[in-house]
Write a structure and sequence with these properties.
CATH class of the largest domain: Alpha Beta
Enzyme class: lyase
Distance between the termini: 75 Å
Keywords: Decarboxylase, Lyase, Pyridoxal phosphate
Number of strands: 11
Radius of gyration: 25 Å
GO molecular function: diaminobutyrate decarboxylase activity; pyridoxal phosphate binding
Cofactor: pyridoxal 5'-phosphate
Helix content: 40-55%
Protein name: L-2,4-diaminobutyrate decarboxylase
CATH topology of the largest domain: Aspartate Aminotransferase, domain 2
Bound molecules: pyridoxal-5'-phosphate
Strand content: 5-15%
Number of helices: 15
Amino acid sequence: MIRRGGCSETVTRSINNHAKMNEHLKNDLIALDNLLEKVKEQGLEYLNNISERRTSTKNITSGILTLSVNGLGTAETLKQFNSRFDQIIVSSSGPRFWGFVTGGSTPASIVGDWLTTIYDQNTFATQGQGDISASIELETIQLLLDLFELPNDFLGGFVTGATMSNFTCLAVARQWIGKEIGKDFAKEGVSENINILTAIPHSSVVKSLSLLGVGSNNIIKIKVLNDNREAIDISDLEKKIDELRGEPFILISSGGTVNTVDFDDFVAIAKLKEKYNFWWHIDAAFGGFAVCSKAHKYLVEGWENADSITIDCHKWLNVPYENAVFFVKEKHKHLQVETFQNSNAPYLGNPLENFSYLNFLPENSRRLKALPVWFSLLAYGRKGYQDIVENCILLANQFGEFINNSNYFELLAPIRLNTVCFTLAGKENQQKVITFLTLLNDTGKVFMTPTIYNGKNGIRAAFVNWRTTENDIEIVTKLMTEIINKIMQQVIE
Ligand SMILES: *Cc1c(COP(=O)(O)O)cnc(C)c1O
């Protein structure tokens, strides 16, 4: 029985049975109800005022503590955290944090994330006397395949972010290339040159190639289409394929580039796949969510034919960090196991018979990352995500309209989905882009990130947060007008 404000008989008993329990641990155990209540209140305070909290800070944290011998206990530690950090933590999960591609967290996902911490499962096996958390993960993968309208011949799993998802998919692709030329790279190491074809890979793809020993210099760059596009020129792709004279290769395609959210033509690539022998990977970290909008799902048409797909959940799915999935066609599971299996652990059994995530992805021990996703998908359903995605697209277009109608700004690319890539109008103002962005971010009311696109200094605003509204667009466009007017007046004076 739990008495509010106190502790249960079971807790009292366990304390009595544990005479040597550390004093702070003992006191924390007794005060757990109180501690969690305090954190709940503090969490509500953050969430309820997220729109007013600053999006940037110039404060730096003071000093670095040394480890104390006796510790402070949790209540005192919370006070320390609050006095040193709480006030200067920025609202990166709030409605006007448009830098990078930064998602927020839905209420359901926060609930799921809390429970993940409290239950603290180590998620790997689905069979044997282990826990059931891997079954929750497998169920969540099915829900995600449903959301993305993908067939269930994909095997999926959770990793920390799209970087690790790209890494996982490309690791299996690497093993596939080896098989094609009679090598087992997982066992023998990478002894051959691996052909990588891609146009505008995300930086994390390049990083993954370097981690995998493939070498980021081995990329064969494919041309992009004319007319301000970032999508693969299919005829150049076919030309580069022909130059390989039948050698197997890995094609890394984009389901949403970060600057202009351009998509490769997946229908055309699927056709090439009938003709040529290659591994097809799609990095659809945030662009994959186009499928949730009726008007935009054509962008991913044909993607079900890929061998592997990367999706980030901590972006447009709006669950807390660190959360992403990979989807790899199940027919490649032998290659996946060859890459990731724990070779020296007899208790694991046959990895193909006794399914365990630790033989299918980089990590062994893992928290139950699926739970926040499971909660959010059940809580809001297909319609919930359609609403989130379509709202973000609408707001991106409204913001884009402001840019288009302004004399001082101009779009660097058309708005294809949820990101606005723009700059200051006029060549002579190129060197003022960073000044403008710094002043804007310094207001603490909005956060955007700099970029370079087609040789120009630019600014990106990415809309992926469920909380953002038209009112936020108004606040920001007003600020932008004030700041740009000031900058331009200074020039005249
Ligand atoms: C964000 C992003 C990544 C990297 O994702 P992390 O979650 O930061 O590891 C990879 N690819 C694309 C297209 C992205 O937008």
